[in-house]
Design a protein that fits this description.
Number of domains: 1
Oligomer: single chain
CATH superfamily: Carbon-nitrogen hydrolase
Largest sheet: 6 strands, mixed
CATH architecture: 4-Layer Sandwich
CATH class: Alpha Beta
Number of helices: 5
Helix content: 10-25%
Distance between the termini: 42 Å
Strand order of the largest sheet: 5-4-3-2-1-17
Number of strands: 17
Order of helices and strands: EHEHEEEEEEEHEEHEEEEEEH
Length: 300
Amino acid sequence: MMQNKTSTKILKVGIVQQSCSADLTANFAKSLAQIRVAAAQGAELVVLQELHRGPYFCQQELSGNFDLAETIPGPSTQLLGDLARELNVVIVASLFEKRGVGLHHNTAVVLERDGSIAGKYRKMHIPDDPGYYEKFYFTPGDLGFHPIQTSVGKLGILVCWDQWFPEAARLMAMAGAELLIYPTAIGWSPEEAQDEKVRQREAWITVQRAHAIANGIPVVSVNRVGHEPDPAGGAGLEFWGSSFVAGPQGEFLWSASTDSEATSVLEVNLARSETVRRMWPYLRDRRIDHYGDLLKIYRD
């Protein structure tokens, strides 16, 4: 096997895993405070979890929850942009976007160091499961799978349910993403059996590590943590935290606990992807001439 010179392109990534309260002002203030904590530790890029402004409101279909949506640009992007400019960091945030009357998206937005909006990604895969009634709230994204160019690199932003689909990760990698980033809100019902909880969490971790391996690029996954009650009086959801960063061979670079908040900064060598892809040339050996059936929903 040929030897490669070791190159480095170190990016200091800040991850904020937090619990969410019903007090939107206090909750958002906590997010902003933890961005400051990460920046003080040297973070150049800070990633927040999915829909970090408040509780995960999709446990029930309630029309009043549409009042939580906001425009982009809007109040949250203004505050986040001001903070990005003050701290000289890039921020990945997740918002309930009001695009028009009766038209809403689950949108990740990237704030550049100068406070401007570098780009946004609208969640493409929308779940509809008990406790996760997102199809009631979100229109599927229409921006496609395009990395967002920033001063810290080309970021492949995807959101939660997107993380289960290898096609999304592959398309981001094919478009030159240097890093896959998944803001997430996922957990289990307190009523589920313990062994099932373990299987769900391990599957979630494994599939994302596989995206890192199959594409030879690092993955950053940031989940929320803590119990959030069901407004209809059910068991609610226990978000399992477990935010993590994996390298281009799926190796763990950092991981958080299942039950507590965490703000951490770690170094990710983006240049290492070049070395890994030379050893494991998945993109070179793809047989696109035989993948046409991937455009079908199912092969009958």
